[in-house]
Design a protein that fits this description.
The structure is a homodimer.
Chain A (H helix, E strand, L loop, with lengths): L8 H10 L16 E3 L5 E10 L10 H18 L3 E11 L4 H17 L4 E8 L5 E10 L15 E5 L4 H9 L3 H5 L4 H12 L8 H7 L2 E5 L3 H12 L2 E5 L7 H8 L5 H6 L5 E6 L4 H11 L3 E8 L6 E3 L17
Parallel strand pairs in A: 3-4, 8-11
Antiparallel strand pairs in A: 2-5, 3-5, 6-9, 6-10, 7-9, 8-10
Amino acid sequence: MASGRPASGEDALIARYFRPIAIDPGAFNLDDDAAALKPSGDDIVVTTDAIVEGVHFLPDDPPDTVARKALRVNLSDLAAKGATPTGFVLTLALRNADEAWLKPFAQALGEDATQFGCPLLGGDTVSTPGPLMVSITAFGRVPPGKMVHRSGAKPGDRVVVTGTIGDAVLGLDVLKGGAVAAALAGDAAARQMLVGRYRVPEPRNALANAVRDHASAAMDVSDGLAGDLAKLCAASGVSAAIDLGSIPLSSAAASLRAQGTVGIEAIITGGDDYEILCAIPENSFEAFARQARLAGVAVASIGTFIAGASIPAFLDAQGRELRLERFSYSHF
Amino acid sequence: MASGRPASGEDALIARYFRPIAIDPGAFNLDDDAAALKPSGDDIVVTTDAIVEGVHFLPDDPPDTVARKALRVNLSDLAAKGATPTGFVLTLALRNADEAWLKPFAQALGEDATQFGCPLLGGDTVSTPGPLMVSITAFGRVPPGKMVHRSGAKPGDRVVVTGTIGDAVLGLDVLKGGAVAAALAGDAAARQMLVGRYRVPEPRNALANAVRDHASAAMDVSDGLAGDLAKLCAASGVSAAIDLGSIPLSSAAASLRAQGTVGIEAIITGGDDYEILCAIPENSFEAFARQARLAGVAVASIGTFIAGASIPAFLDAQGRELRLERFSYSHF
């Protein structure tokens, strides 16, 4: 991102909407071709995630929620890697420079950047004839070699998730006017909660230190719990046995499940949760849970990693294994 | 970028095409949610640039040239900032996973990554219903505080550019079947050279050390020499006087200009040059030019930075100022 002559629309757009939120000295006031990250002795963790209109968010999602989602899906990756956010760069592909869209987008982006201590450092704004796309590369710091990997889970470690699972896919169904929308026709608060979980995930950065201190492996749940757990298992060379009844659900999700509106399959394969999935050794669990309580993040132990290469098993109260037709969302 | 279960198309795509080129240890074999940059005591320079089908490249440009252009426009920024490339992350928005496109794309990306010492560290692959888009965030290293800025040019400094100016916009005209294509109908070599300059820029990373050692300000020329010089002047609080006759042209561009096919305005406002524009203090110029010769990069002194806030003046052999209708490309 760079600017100079006020005559250029692109430069004016950057100066007007993004310069006010680029308050970090390494952003050079967005007046240069690059940003700079100062050395601190830490490893710099780099993650990149893009969201595309019509794929990751809906065309009529409010611009402030699009901004927050774009940043938060990246913050969620940093949290799962045990990293402390340190900044991000933004690529914005727009059909046109619409003030009514850009103003709330930039303002919300700045608010989240401040809230999560992850300042805007630079970026690129390009025109596209196609769908709006927001691509963010975010940076975090960890002590050298301390990034938490997907590989590292050991048989006997607990399978732990934060927050609640499945709300986002139910929120998407509300927005699409599906069965969930119909079932919750009389419950505006529940509809609003679920939609909020789809549009504005709650990254668990408050838990990053606890993950770094205790997790043998971690990732964030973005494509669905079942598929992402399978990925973590594959990377770690283990399997897992999950107690379906232990998977944490919001009261809205629990009600919808109890009344038969949605099955557990949809909940554990839906994606967009942006919760942390991690492996916690049994003898660390108490200390981990204590740190999580202090951080204000709910954590639930939902099963155990086991030896083997089979796909994780999701078991009901009778010990019967759930058969899944698909495990997670895939773009192709 | 991350993978695991072979069943997922997205993961298979990453494993097949991108894992083989992600050879840096910080990429973790693309088997995690993030990459890691090791601390070296240097500042990390971060730049991000996206290219969009139909905007920055043509729908029928070969996939290998799209890959090279996407990486090279970022390498060009690193070179202009005096930084040594250290790696990049890739966001690829695709309509579908077409092997005939992805295979040469990934192979060329890997070749350029090796050639420029800038390994693939990670990324994100998403589906889009719209135009193909390649967004890259690239990293470089400079000793602390030594990134070269746009601001810093002083009155009396020489205005210096690398390579030749204007070839890319002429190459675009060839591809679009415009006046340049007609004028060069009998000269396949010239057409090919110009098209090559549009599709595959030559980033001047070999000159990065010389820029860092000697330039008081620098940027790469991406949106047109006239506009980018105006931006550098604005950032530095100076103006400039340019001798139009000193602007380095390829023989093809010089011929087209001499025969009246294109004017100098098109050449200096066309963009996509990806040459370095920099300010070199008079007493450093000889040493800078010597380093450039050793690096094998042609440099030309095209004018002088002067005091004042006026837009840079482009002067012909009679000292008359060229009047420009527009200075550069802007997306909005």
